[in-house]
Amino acid sequence: MPNTKSAERRMRNSARKQLHNRSVTSNLRRVEKEFRAVVAAGKKDDAVKLLPGVHSAYDKAVKFGVVKRPTANRKKSRLALSVATKEVAKK
User: Fold this and answer.
1) 48: left (phi over 0), alpha (psi -120 to 50) or beta
2) DSSP track, 21-71
3) Is 67 helix (H, G, I), strand (E, B) or coil?
């Protein structure tokens, strides 16, 4: 339990921020998982359409401070490469 009033406020704030960070992180995981499933299924056109949404989700996570900028850039790059390099049949 917090001993001071300011510690109590910090506890409330950190609980609220943790909840927000968790929702952003779970959204990132969901979006990336959907994207990877489309790539694995070989649907290049759909993957290309989903890619900007994945990039946007990572940029928003960086804006909120949930993910660091280099991590987001690395993941965005690898996801883009997965579409570009993999020989995906157009279905």
Assistant:
1) alpha
2) HHHHHHHHHHHHHHHHHHHHHT-HHHHHHHHHHHHHHHHHHHHHTSS-HHH
3) coil
State the total domains in the chain: 1
91 within some domain = no
Phi (first) and psi of residue 55, to 5 degrees: -60, -40
pTM: 0.83
| Angle at CA of residue 35, ends 34 and 40, nearest 5° | 100
CATH label of the domain that carries residue 12: 1.20.58.110
- Quick: pLDDT tens for 43-63: 999 999 999 999 999 999 999
